[in-house]
C-alpha cells in the first residue's frame, strides 16, 4: 500500500522553539507554531531573478536549485512534452561549455537531477559548500547559452521517447493517462507531463529554442540556495554570475503565459465522464483509477482537504485502509490530492485483491467516501491527522535539498515562498465540520471520472535462450577526454577535510548492539535497525516467507492489536517501517525528538512480541500474490529474476524468488516459527541519530530490550562458490505488449572485503556509475540516444554478489545497445582508464560521500549497514583516504581481473518484436 503524502510544495519545515530532548509524550496544549521561512531571505535582482537564501549549519553542504515557470501548463496539443524535452536539452552543453553538463556536475561530486511538472521545470544540485559558486556559474551559463540544434535534439529525442516508452510499460500509467485526459478535456492539466510520441517526434530545434528563449530568462526563474554559507558572500556570487543576464529593470513574472494558444486552464466544472473508461490491454492485474477535480493551491479549502486525505488513507486506522485493505478487497493502492496553480485533482488508484472484481472494489471505495460525506469525522481523527501532517513536515525538513525544494515549489506553484506557513496556520483551525463540508463539495459521485484496466493476458511468453558469439560487431567511440571536461569546469576552492562523527556504541548482555549519535541541530531522531533475517533464508518451497514476516510485524503483538500499534505510532506522527532485503530486515523510523520514547516503545514491541494474527496474515498473503503477478509483468523485475536464475544454480540464495505457488504454501505458524528462530538480539543492531539525551536514551533502550533472550547459535546460510559463465549466454523472456525492453548483463563477482573493492568503486564510477557522466552513459545515451537509463555496479556485500550492467531500450535498439556496452567494457578491460579519469572519479566519490552523509537518516543507515556487513565503523571514517589512495595501476588491474565481456550472461525482457509505437 502506498500511503498518502503531501505534495512536494509542502515538504520542508523547521520547528520553532527550544531544542527538543527525549521525554515522555507530547503536550495536549495547542500545537506550537511551525514555519518554513525562518531565516529565509528574498532578494530580487534588477533583471527580475528571484533569489531565496537560507543558512543551515550542521553539514558542510549547499543545495542550489533553479525553478523556471514553465511546465505542461504552458503546453497544448501539438506541443505536449516540449517543456520536458527542453529539460533534457539543458544537459547537452552550452555555447561556452560544449560538454555534457552531467559530466561537469559529476566532476563536482554533485547530487543532481532535474524534473518537469505541470507548473515548473527545476534543476537541483547539492554539493560541498566550497563548490556552490561553481554550480551557480553552470546554472547561469545554461540559463542563456544552451546549445539547441537539430543534431543534438535528434539524439535526445530518442532518449525522451525511451523514457516515455518506459512509462508506458506500466498499465497504471496508461490508465491514469486516459482518466486524466477524460477528466480535464479542456485543460493542459489533462495532458501528460512527458508528452506524446506524435508531438515529441514533431518538435523542431526552432520550436524548442523558442520555448527556451521565452521562459529561460531571469524574470521567469527562482534561484533557491540553502545550506552552509554566509548570505552576503553568496549573494555577491549570485550577482556575479546572474546579474548581467537578461534586461535591467525587469520585474519577476508572476504567472507565465503559454507561448502558443492553449485550452482553457479551468479544471473545475468540466462534466465528468459517467461510465467507467475501460482499457483492455496486456497486463497482469486489474486496476482502478478515479479522479475528482479539486481547487487550486491557494484555495482556503486546501487545509481541510489535506486533513480529509489523511483520515481516508494515512495509516492502519484510516478509513480506506480498514475498508479496502483490512477487508481483503484491495491488494495495493493509494490516494493523491494535487493542488496546482490553476486547479487540481484528487486521484484514487487501487489494485483489487485476487478474486475481487473491479466493480466490487469500486463500490467499497464509493461507500467509504459516502460515509465521510454523510457523517463528519471524529475530533480524534481530525486531531491525529493534523498531528501526522505537522510531524511529517518536520521529519521531511532535515535535508537542505528538501528545504530548498519546498521553497522553490511554493514560490512557483503558489506564487509565494511563504505559502506553507499560511497552510500550517490554517491547518490548526480545521474542524470535523470543515472536513465533512469539503468531502460533500468535492467528492460527489457525479464529479468523478473513473477508469478500469482489465488485463487481456497475464502470462509471459516462453523465454528463448542461446549461447555463443553475438552476430553484430560494434566499435565503441573514443571516450570523452576528462581534460576537456576539466577545461570547462568552473574554478572552486579546495574543499576542507571532513571527519565523520562516529556514534557511541554499546552492547547489551543479550548481544543487542546499539549506536547513538547526538545531533543537536535537528528537532528529529532518525532510526535505523537491522535484523539478520533477510531473504537469504528463504527457500524455493516457501519463498516469500521472509517478506511476509517483515510485512506483518505491525499487524499485532501480545500487548497491542494492529489498531493499537497504529495509534501508538501515528498518534504522534512518528514513522516505523519494516522491509526485507537479501541480508536482513531493515526497520527504518523517525520521530520528533520529544516522541523518541514512543518510537522506541513501538520498535521494542514489534521486535519481541509480534503475534502475526491470522486475519492480517491472510490479507497480506493475498496482496503478496498480487504483487508477484505485477512483478511478472514488469520487464525490469523479470530481467532481474531471470538473470539471477541464470547466473546462480538452483539452491543458491541469490536465485530464490517468491512465486504465487510458494506464497500459497506458507502458513501462519510458519511466520511465528521463523520469527522465533531468526529475530534475535544477537543478530540485531539499532542506530539512532538526532537530538536526544544519550544517557537517557541508553537507559531507556536497556530497559526495553534487556529482557529479549535468544538461545542456541544464530541461524546462518552457506553460499556456494559460483563461477563465471563459459562464453556468452543469452536469455530473452518475452513480455507481450510492452514498449521498452530491460537488459541485464553480468556475472558473479566480488564481496565487500575483497582487496580490489575500493579500486572497483573507482573503476565503476568511470564505467557506469552515473548515467550522464560515465563512459556507458556518454556512449549509449548521450552520443547514440539508445537508452534513457544505463548503469553498472558491483553488488559487493558480506557475500559475493554479481557485477551487473542494466539498460532500458526500445526493442529495436536493444541489440545495438548491448553490443555497444560489450564493446565498451572490452575497451576498458584492454586499454584501461586514463589518469585524469581516475583522478576525477576519486574526487567525485569523496565529494559524493560528504554530500550523502549530510542527512541524519542516511548516516544512521550507513552505521547500521557497516556493522551488519561485519565492517568496523572506523572504515567509514577512512573511506575518503582509501578512495584517494587508489592508484591508476590498481584500477586498471581491477579492470583486467573484474571485467569479462567474453563470458557473460545477457538477459533481455520485453516484447518479442521491436516496438513500432
Automatic annotation (TrEMBL):
Residues 51-196, 514-645 form the Peptidase M16 N-terminal domain. Residues 1-22 form the signal peptide. Coiled coil: none annotated. InterPro entries: Metalloenz_LuxS/M16 (IPR011249), MPP/UQCRC_Complex (IPR050361), Pept_M16_N (IPR011765), Peptidase_M16_C (IPR007863). The keyword Signal applies. The keyword Signal applies. It holds the Pfam family Peptidase_M16_C. Keywords: Signal. Belongs to the peptidase M16 family. This is Peptidase M16.
Amino acid at each position: 500500500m502506498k500511503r498518502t503524502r503531501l505534495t512536494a510544495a509542502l515538504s520542508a519545515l523547521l520547528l520553532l522553539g527550544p531544542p527538543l530532548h527525549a521525554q515522555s509524550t507530547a503536550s495536549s496544549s495547542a500545537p506550537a507554531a511551525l514555519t518554513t521561512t525562518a531565516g529565509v531571505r528574498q532578494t530580487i535582482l534588477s533583471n527580475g531573478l528571484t533569489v531565496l537564501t537560507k543558512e543551515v549549519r550542521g553539514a558542510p553542504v549547499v543545495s542550489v536549485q533553479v525553478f523556471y515557470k514553465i511546465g505542461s501548463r504552458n503546453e497544448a496539443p501539438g506541443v505536449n512534452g516540449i517543456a520536458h524535452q527542453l529539460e533534457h536539452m539543458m544537459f547537452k552543453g552550452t555555447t561556452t561549455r560544449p560538454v555534457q553538463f552531467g559530466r561537469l556536475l559529476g566532476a563536482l561530486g554533485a547530487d543532481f537531477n532535474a524534473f518537469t511538472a505541470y507548473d515548473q521545470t527545476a534543476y537541483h544540485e547539492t554539493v560541498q559548500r566550497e563548490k556552490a559558486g561553481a554550480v551557480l556559474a553552470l546554472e547561469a551559463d545554461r540559463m542563456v547559452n544552451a546549445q539547441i540544434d537539430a543534431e543534438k535534439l535528434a539524439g535526445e529525442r530518442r532518449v525522451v521517447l525511451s523514457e516515455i516508452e518506459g512509462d508506458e510499460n506500466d498499465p497504471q500509467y496508461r490508465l491514469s493517462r486516459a482518466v486524466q485526459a477524460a477528466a480535464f478535456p479542456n485543460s493542459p492539466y489533462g495532458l501528460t507531463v512527458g508528452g506524446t510520441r506524435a508531438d515529441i517526434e514533431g518538435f523542431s530545434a526552432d520550436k524548442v529554442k523558442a520555448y527556451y528563449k521565452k521562459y529561460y530568462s531571469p524574470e521567469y526563474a527562482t534561484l533557491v540556495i540553502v545550506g552552509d554559507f554566509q548570505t552576503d558572500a553568496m549573494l555577491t556570487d549570485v550577482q556575479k554570475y546572474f546579474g548581467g543576464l537578461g534586461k535591467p529593470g525587469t520585474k519577476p513574472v508572476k504567472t507565465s503565459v503559454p507561448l502558443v494558444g492553449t485550452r482553457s486552464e479551468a479544471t473545475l466544472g468540466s462534466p465528468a465522464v459517467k461510465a467507467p473508461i475501460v482499457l483492455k490491454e496486456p497486463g497482469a492485474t486489474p486496476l482502478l483509477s478515479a479522479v475528482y477535480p479539486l481547487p487550486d493551491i491557494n484555495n482556503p479549502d486546501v487545509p481541510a482537504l489535506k486533513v480529509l486525505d489523511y483520515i481516508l488513507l494515512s495509516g492502519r486506522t484510516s478509513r480506506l485502509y480498514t475498508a479496502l485493505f483490512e477487508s481483503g478487497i484491495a491488494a495495493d493502492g493509494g490516494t493523491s490530492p494535487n493542488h496546482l496553480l490553476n486547479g487540481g485533482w484528487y486521484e484514487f488508484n487501487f489494485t483489487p485483491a485476487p478474486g475481487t472484481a473491479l466493480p466490487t472494489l469500486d463500490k467499497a471505495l464509493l461507500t467509504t467516501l459516502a460515509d465521510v460525506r454523510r457523517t463528519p469525522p471524529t475530533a480524534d481523527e481530525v486531531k491525529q491527522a493534523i498531528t501526522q501532517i505537522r510531524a511529517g513536515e518536520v521529519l521531511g525538513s532535515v535535508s537542505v535539498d528538501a528545504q530548498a525544494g519546498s521553497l522553490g515549489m511554493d514560490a512557483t506553484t503558489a506564487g509565494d515562498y511563504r505559502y506553507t506557513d499560511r497552510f500550517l496556520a490554517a491547518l490548526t483551525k480545521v474542524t470535523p465540520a470543515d472536513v465533512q463540508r469539503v468531502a460533500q463539495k468535492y467528492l460527489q459521485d457525479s464529479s468523478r471520472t473513473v477508469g478500469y484496466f482489465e488485463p487481456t493476458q497475464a502470462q509471459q511468453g516462453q523465454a528463448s535462450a542461446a549461447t555463443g558469439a553475438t552476430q553484430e560487431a560494434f566499435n565503441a567511440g573514443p571516450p570523452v577526454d576528462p581534460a576537456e571536461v576539466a577545461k570547462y569546469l568552473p574554478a572552486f576552492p579546495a574543499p576542507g577535510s571532513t571527519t565523520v562523527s562516529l556514534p557511541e556504541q554499546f552492547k547489551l548482555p543479550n548481544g543487542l548492539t546499539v549506536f547513538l549519535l547526538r545531533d543537536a541541530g535537528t528537532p528529529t531522531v532518525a532510526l535505523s535497525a537491522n535484523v539478520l533475517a533477510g531473504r537469504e533464508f528463504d527457500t524455493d518451497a516457501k519463498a516469500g516467507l521472509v517478506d511476509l514476516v517483515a510485512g506483518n510485524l505491525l499487524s499485532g503483538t501480545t500487548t497491542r492489536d494492529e489498531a493499537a500499534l497504529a495509534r501508538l505510532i501515528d498518534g504522534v506522527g512518528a514513522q516505523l517501517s519494516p522491509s526485507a532485503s537479501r541480508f536482513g530486515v531493515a526497520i527504518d523510523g523517525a520521530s520528533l525528538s520529544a516522541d523518541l520514547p514512543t518510537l522506541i516503545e513501538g520498535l521494542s514491541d514489534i521486535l519481541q512480541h509480534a503475534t502475526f494474527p491470522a486475519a492480517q496474515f491472510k490479507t497480506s498473503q493475498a496482496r503478496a500474490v498480487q504483487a508477484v503477478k505485477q512483478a511478472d509483468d514488469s520487464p525490469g523485475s523479470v530481467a532481474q529474476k531471470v538473470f539471477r536464475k541464470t547466473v546462480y544454480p538452483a539452491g543458491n540464495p541469490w536465485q530464490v524468488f517468491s512465486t504465487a505457488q510458494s506464497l500459497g504454501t506458507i502458513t501462519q505458524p510458519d511466520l511465528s516459527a521463523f520469527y522465533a528462530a531468526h529475530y534475535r538480539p544477537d543478530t540485531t543492531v539499532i542506530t539512532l541519530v538526532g537530538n536526544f539525551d544519550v544517557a537517557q536514551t541508553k537507559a531507556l533502550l536497556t530497559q526495553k530490550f534487556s529482557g529479549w533472550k535468544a538461545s542456541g547459535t544464530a541461524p546462518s546460510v552457506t553460499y556456494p562458490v559460483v563461477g563465471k559463465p563459459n562464453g556468452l549466454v543469452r536469455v530473452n523472456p518475452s513480455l507481450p505488449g510492452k514498449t521498452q525492453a530491460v537488459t541485464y548483463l553480468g556475472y558473479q563477482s566480488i564481496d565487500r572485503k575483497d582487496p580490489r573493492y575500493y579500486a572497483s568503486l573507482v573503476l565503476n564510477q568511470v564505467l557506469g556509475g552515473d548515467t550522464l557522466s560515465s563512459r556507458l552513459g556518454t556512449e549509449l545515451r548521450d552520443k547514440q540516444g539508445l537508452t534513457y537509463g544505463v548503469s553498472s555496479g558491483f553488488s559487493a556485500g558480506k557475500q559475493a554478489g554479481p557485477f551487473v550492467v542494466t539498460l532500458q531500450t526500445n526493442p529495436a535498439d536493444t541489440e545495438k545497445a548491448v553490443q555497444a556496452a560489450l564493446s565498451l567494457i572490452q575497451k576498458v578491460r584492454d586499454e584501461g582508464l586514463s589518469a585524469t579519469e581516475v583522478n576525477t572519479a576519486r574526487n567525485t566519490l569523496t565529494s559524493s560521500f560528504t554530500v550523502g552523509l549530510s542527512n541524519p537518516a542516511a548516516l544512521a543507515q550507513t552505521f547500521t549497514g557497516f556493522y551488519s556487513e561485519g565492517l568496523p565503523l572506523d572504515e567509514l571514517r577512512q573511506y575518503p583516504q582509501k578512495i584517494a589512495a587508489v592508484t591508476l595501476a590498481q584500477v586498471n588491474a581491477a579492470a583486467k581481473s573484474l571485467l569479462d565481456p567474453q563470458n557473460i550472461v545477457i538477459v533481455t525482457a520485453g516484447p518479442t518484436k521491436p516496438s513500432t509505437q
